[in-house]
């Protein structure tokens, strides 16, 4: 869960220029917070049988309830984001179309970073570059060097050497990676909810079997 959440946060930090808004950060940070609560609740759950503290049992149940709320929120947010991925990435084509190859341009840097990290080229395929103004200005012969499979001196982005270029488009790769990790986050939340419910039931059963000490004194044969 924390791995998926961290991935979503890092994805936004690296490729946030292509997203409509920062909605992707919500399920990501929720996953990290839930992971911290899981650790805290797990430590408390281990200590309860040893010290047999009513305060700890009550605290454990409280953390489980908070955990359930966070996990439910994370599951809902993840599900909603899966349906929003298409809308979130509608600006990808526009950003690629405005590419000018300058390192000082934030959009161009974002495109180069995306192509290098995801090992892709163009929006749907490397041939998409042939319809951009940058391709025309470059002499109708080259795609960005960030499309090259190898960054040595053998590749200059020449379209007559397609075997040296990444073939798959960046939109599909980015979309598939997001869906994979968001789905993993969703099912992790569902699994954690089920485990938290079982833990709450178990803790409730333990508290029911061990009533408060004050009431046990009243039940003592001393007062009969």
TrEMBL record:
This is Tetraspanin. The gene is LOC117365597. InterPro entries: Tetraspanin/Peripherin, Tetraspanin_animals, Tetraspanin_EC2_sf. It comes from the Eukaryota. PANTHER family: TETRASPANIN. Keywords: Membrane, Transmembrane, Transmembrane helix. The lineage of its organism: Eukaryota, Metazoa, Chordata, Craniata, Vertebrata. Belongs to the tetraspanin (TM4SF) family. It is a multi-pass membrane protein. The chain crosses the membrane at residues 24-48, 60-82, 181-201. It is found in: Membrane. One of its GO terms (cellular component) is plasma membrane.
